[in-house]
Amino acid sequence: MAKPILLSLFVFLLLTVCYTSLAAAPASESLYTTFLNCLKQNNTDPSISNIVFPQSNPSFSTVLQNYIRNARFNTSSTSKPSIIVTPKQTSHIQSTVICAKTVNVQIKIRSGGHDYEGISYISNQQPFIILDMFNLRTINVDIINEVAFIQAGATLGEVYYRIYEKSKVHGFPAGVCPTVGVGGHFSGGGYGTMLRKYGLSVDNIIDAEIVDVKGRLLNRKSMGEDLFWAILGGGGASFGVVLSYTVKLVAVPETVTVFRIEKTIEQNATDLVVQWQQVAPTTDNRLFMRLLLQPITSKTVKGTKTLRASVVAMFLGGAEELVGILGKEFPLLGLKKSDCLELSWINSVLWYNDADEFNNGAKPESLLDRNLNSASFGKRKSDYVQKPIPKDALNLIWKKMIELGKVGFVFNPYGGRMNEIPADATPFPHRAGNLFKVQFSVNWNDPAPNATLNYLNQAKSLYSFMEPYVSKNPRSAYINYRDLDIGINSFGENSYQEGQVYGAKYFNNNFDRLVKIKTAVDPDNFFRNEQSIPVLAGKV
């Protein structure tokens, strides 16, 4: 009797081992097979399999890492998609949405990969798919009608260059980093050095295309004004896959002026910042004066740290006029004509992105370089200041920054056109009443986990310290400076309440309208991420 029993036990164990290995290994492969078969059934393109990269594809890691822009999310322990889809035409996106719904897998949508928390390409849910938009980069510039059609996978550098090819007196108000993707930048608001003259990127958008949860391609007319409003600053990934934007170009003079002036605490930087708060949000709306604040090693007192204030500016006009304006309004800056550089608008884009590269001969064509698979470690947070920070408080802030050691600030002045546009004109609500936006910024290169923890804690510590000096009820934030510290949605029973925590900060009183639109266009909450717009309770 012993032999049959042993034989039965052996067969049972063998079957168990085989079943277990089959169940574990092919999970992502079976998803790939099912998903690909669905794509083929829902698309007439015979080469559609070439745009689908499962983890087993030799190119998978390269495709994934090309558009990871924060090294914090490029580690062996970072969550990976089961599949990356790289659409080359609209129908590819439509089929991907339909099939992801069919197999019940989450989609993450990546345009340029610059989301500061990586949520366009990582997920706390498994499995998930990345819909990677980088092939969809068509830009058609129509100078006669002063408009441009721009696909979501284009970069800002490509947008600027294509405008420059057609005209030297047109531009577009968007960000200073040329590798940022249009899809994420525009759908979160988007701003740059022409903010005070022309407002946000979304204030200059006249049409858009989106693939909705049903796989339909909609434009402004067919999607309706509610959904069109929502994707002008509400974060497009909550509502569908934004395929393109049509924008109004803006006028720029043949000559613009830039300058950078730096002062340390020992050189009266504190009084300079006091005066900057009075001038930067109220001066001529052609002038954008960004203020960078950074703890540095002192050059005058060995072994000690100080704080450096850098005013980095772009003026839509000539140097002589600019020196006259700031001589009256901002005497502590001490601007001289010799501090200024007059150049074309396209060259101001190059200078503002990297003055050293520009001075070494960088040409407009360099804006086409996507600089793939290159990222340092970083963390960003944001705030809004509505009352000038007094001098004694600034001294306390400098002391805290020097004590922490690494985290810096970027102060971006508002006023001008931003004061004229109502807070509910777009989902982006931070308009009149805000003097400037604050970015908390820290970058590092040390890959050690304890280094990352240290810098993340520095940023949190400075954020806590700043609470008395920034907006309240809510303490506002900018969605494109993504910060998961201010709230994450688990999409359980309390998803509306969880969404309200970060939603009120990003969107203020516009949050509830976004929720209503989300509930109407995506009632099952298919398009979601860690900080997406939730649906109304009871709808999921």
From TrEMBL:
* GO BP of this protein: cannabinoid biosynthetic process
* Cofactor section: FAD
GO molecular function terms attached to this record: FAD binding; oxidoreductase activity
Q: Which Pfam families match?
A: BBE (PF08031), FAD_binding_4 (PF01565)
List UniProt keywords, sorted A-Z. Disulfide bond, FAD, Flavoprotein, Glycoprotein, Signal
FAD-binding PCMH-type domain location, by residue? 77-252
The signal peptide here is 1-23
* SUPFAM superfamilies named among the record's database cross-references: FAD-binding/transporter-associated domain-like (SSF56176)
User: Which InterPro entries would you find in this protein's record?
Assistant: BBE (IPR012951), FAD-bd_PCMH (IPR016166), FAD-bd_PCMH-like_sf (IPR036318), FAD-bd_PCMH_sub1 (IPR016167), FAD-bd_PCMH_sub2 (IPR016169), Oxid_FAD_bind_N (IPR006094)
Entry's family note: Belongs to the oxygen-dependent FAD-linked oxidoreductase family.
- This protein is called FAD-binding PCMH-type domain-containing protein
Organism field: Vicia faba
